[in-house]
Amino acid sequence: MQNLKTVILHNREIAPGYYRMAILAPGYPQTAKAGQFVMLRVQLQAQPLLRRPFGIFKTGTLPPECSGMPPREFVELVYKVVGSGTELMATLQRGDQVELLGPLGEGFVATEDENPILVGGGIGLVPLFKLAEDLCRQGRKVRLLMGGRTRDDILGITEFERLGVETYVSTDDGSLGEEGLVTAVLERKLAKYPGAQVYACGPTPMLNAVHAICATHSTPLQVSLEALMACGVGACLGCVVPGKEHREDEPDYLCTCRQGPVFDAELLQWPESGGAA
Amino acid sequence: MSQPTPSLAVELAGLALRNPVMPASGTFGYGQEFAPYLDLEKIGAVMTKGISLRPKAGNPTPRIAETSSGMLNAIGLQNVGIDAFIRDKVPYLQTLNTPVIVNFFGNQLHEYIEVAEKLSDIEAVDAVELNISCPNVKQGGIVFGTEPCAAAEVVSGVREKLNKPLIVKLTPNVTDITVMARAVEESGADVISCVNTLTGMAVDIEKQCLHLANGTGGLSGPAIKPVALRMVYQVVRAVSVPVIGIGGIMTAKDALEFLLVGATAVQVGTANLVNPGAMSEIVDGIEQFCRDKGIDDINQWIGSLQE
User: Fold this and answer.
1) Any chain A CB within 8 A of the CB of B64?
2) Contacts with A48 from chain B: Cβ below 8 Å
């Protein structure tokens, strides 16, 4: 964990409203784990005040810019413009300064199960890339179910496929892949591959539905949660989620930034209905 | 020739601090959370989050919202409770070569007193800060902080059972903060810290809903600094005990402003959340300012406002 005052290597739009930003980050290729996140401060002024949390998409090393210089280790984020912080981020360019706190939190645990199935919705696909890399490196057959509202929300399909990941795409409007929800694909895959381990990241209704399906099939599930955060280090307790045993009179809150953002689904409290998706 | 290092040491009711910079309760966890980013022996004191007699769940989420140059929080004083604090958190705090101040609160008078008694027994705790000013809890807290008689009752009750310096933290959500300051001074406060957060709210015009599950929250950050500075200025002139200034301190310049109007020390809150190394930078900045101005002791600067 470190707080780096560093610079942007590149920042470009990869789909309407989605950007990909690489930041000089010494040490990240060795330390960052799949599912961890960073807190990014985009401006050293009071507006916007708080850092923003982003799941780590990729880490890597670029060759030195000229001989005698050290190789450039970087971390790559993919983000969607949704508010003032990300609007400002979208204007940043190579060489602009940012502050990077991380890598933070607990990431995915790659288990030994035969059939890893990754389920990602929209921007939730981002932290799954590093997990897919790890699983593929272990020689596992990885299946990724990608969901989005339209084709613009399906991120990084080529890169996942380049790893050797088998991808299945569904969109709400049918503009790419099959029309419908990603959870419908998950139902079919779980019927075909019993004994799978599911890893999921995406909007809350999607996660609720994924949990309900996995529970029905007695399939182990790890989920990566998104939460509003102020500090990212477990101090402010702004990002808590109810744990499995949580009751009004007997609190059992889990801190998303410190104990997550990736949780074993069994540790969390889920809507009994199975969610709204 | 290099200049001599200025002395930043200050004293709060017999408590010696190496410098006047400490965290504000609720923004620093139990201290250990910040150890990877900040040398805890560089700051004047460590301040832990508010502790109550029993563990407290806090409020439902969402608990935080960002506003213009500020942050709203409605955490609701979630904490592990005094017994778990003693068992799980004190062993680490004991290892620090920095004074430890524990913030605490209760729902009722007897709870404040019971926690004070337990804190009295802990050697690693150098001082306590009595929170009668949290805007985010329905019971206790704010009632004690907004009614002079209730404040006096809780302060004198705690004072009687406590063998350590007693800091009382005031809320800005009153008509005249000097009335509250005098009431707590007269009933036994050794130090006054002010201010806690200002009650505020935020709404979402797209979803037509409140941002915080609690409805309202405590506003902190640069947005509140002018209000806090005014109140610290007023309180310093209304009481004779030392005052700790709190409210939107992000930089050394902000801290120096509070010291200039008479605060003996400052607490840094939201800045810790934005930058976990903020207090270290503030200490360095104060030291550099003193060098630049030829100030060899920070106490020469404290309260030196020319009027």
Assistant:
1) yes
2) 66
For residue A9, the surrounding DSSP H or E stretch is: strand A2-15
**A226 Cβ neighbours under 8 A, 6+ residues apart:** A53, A124, A261
Over residues B201-257, the pLDDT tens digits come to 999 999 999 999 999 999 999 999 999 999 999 999 999 999 999 999 999 999 999
| Tens-digit pLDDT string for chain B (307 aa) | 567 899 999 999 999 999 999 999 999 999 999 999 999 999 999 999 999 999 988 898 899 999 999 999 999 988 989 999 999 999 999 999 999 999 999 988 899 999 999 999 999 999 999 998 766 555 555 668 888 988 999 999 999 999 999 999 999 999 999 999 999 999 999 999 999 999 999 999 999 999 999 999 999 999 999 999 999 999 999 999 999 999 999 999 999 999 999 999 999 999 999 999 999 999 999 999 999 999 999 999 999 999 8
- pTM, two decimals, is 0.92
Instruction: Please state which of the four CATH numbers 1.10.510.10, 3.30.70.3040, 1.10.287.110, 2.40.30.10 is assigned to the domain occupying A2-104.
Output: 2.40.30.10
Alpha carbon distance B187, B151 (integer Å): 8
Contact assessment for residue A240 and residue A256, using Cβ atoms and an 8 Å cutoff: yes
The residue behind tokens 């932290």 is A127
**CATH of segment(s) A106-225+273-277:** 3.40.50.80
Q: Please judge whether B55 and A251 are an interchain contact, meaning their C-beta atoms are less than 8 angstroms apart.
A: yes
Choose the closest CB to A50 out of B34, B274, B276. B274
Residue B256 is given by DSSP the state H
> CA-nearest residue of chain B to A43?
B274
Q: Which residues of A touch B69 (CB under 8 A)?
A: 46-47, 49
* Shortest Cα–Cα distance, B296 to chain A (Å): 30
Active site residues of B: 134
Chain B residue at shortest CA distance from A241: B61
Instruction: Answer whether A1 sits within 8 Å of B37, measured CB to CB.
Output: yes
Sign of CA dihedral B247, B248, B253, B255: positive
CB contact under 8 A, A49 and B70: yes
Domains of chain B: 10-300 (3.20.20.70)
Cβ of A253 within 8 Å of Cβ of B58? The answer is yes
